[in-house]
Design brief:
Low-confidence stretches: none
Order of helices and strands: HEEHEEEEHHEEEE
Mean pLDDT: 90
Largest sheet: 6 strands, antiparallel
Number of helices: 4
Radius of gyration: 17 Å
Length: about 220
């Protein structure tokens, strides 16, 4: 819904929900987001650039989110390519980026949705998520985390285009996917391979079992 109404929202607008009844992530996956247990925030950005210049946006936001969690909760999450924040082997949060385009082909605006679990105990999760999801266990309130995240997103925005390589270097330091076996799922096949490199455009270079390398985005 926010994507449809963002035409009238200025750059830097922030919307925070106490809960989501239809929280979702990439590929239409659901995101469990009951009231009072997490930060559920969307930010409107208007970067005025070609789409190919903005392919790393999700990565840059992930680094800003790690910075905010570390500053407020005292622990630094890791990043599972491309958009999951993790603690140990469990998912702490996620990022969903959606773009709208102007008639000239430039990005008219981007809506970045961020969800981070902050609840006091893991019991906030339904049974099917207890083994794969985690929370900050009450180390920080959603409001405090939101303030820190907005501050770091503002700084990120100034670096987004002119210092893309530097932002991506930071992403690579936090990314746990590199060096691991991954599955690449396409409409026609599932392929196994080794994650070798995250490129400056946010794509992941995978060395497949047949010896071929491919940048996956």
């Amino acid at each position: 819904a926010l994507l449809k109404t963002s035409l009238d929202l200025p750059h830097g607008s922030v919307v925070i929900a106490r809960r989501q009844t239809g929280g979702r992530g990439r590929l239409g996956r659901s995101f469990h987001s009951p009231e009072g247990t997490g930060l559920y925030m969307s930010v409107v950005l208007r970067p005025h650039c070609a789409p190919q210049e903005l392919m790393h946006l999700t990565c840059a936001v992930a680094v800003a989110a790690c910075d905010a969690v570390e500053a407020t909760a005292g622990i630094r999450p890791k990043i599972k390519w491309i958009n999951d924040l993790t603690l140990g082997s469990k998912k702490l949060g996620g990022i969903l980026t959606e773009l709208a385009f102007a008639p000239n082909g430039e990005v008219e605006f981007a809506v970045v949705g961020i969800g981070i679990n902050c609840g006091n105990t893991a019991s906030v999760f339904p049974p099917e998520l207890e083994s794969i999801a985690c929370t900050l266990e009450g180390r920080v309130t959603p409001d405090t985390l939101a303030k820190a995240l907005v501050e770091r997103l503002e700084k990120m925005n100034t670096l987004l285009l002119p210092q893309r390589s530097e932002l991506m270097d930071r992403y690579r330091r936090d990314c746990i996917t590199l060096g691991r076996q991954v599955r690449v799922i396409s409409p026609t096949a599932v392929r196994q391979g080794l994650a070798r490199q995250v490129n400056d455009d946010g794509s992941l270079t995978v060395l497949f079992e047949d010896g071929q390398s491919q940048a996956v985005s």
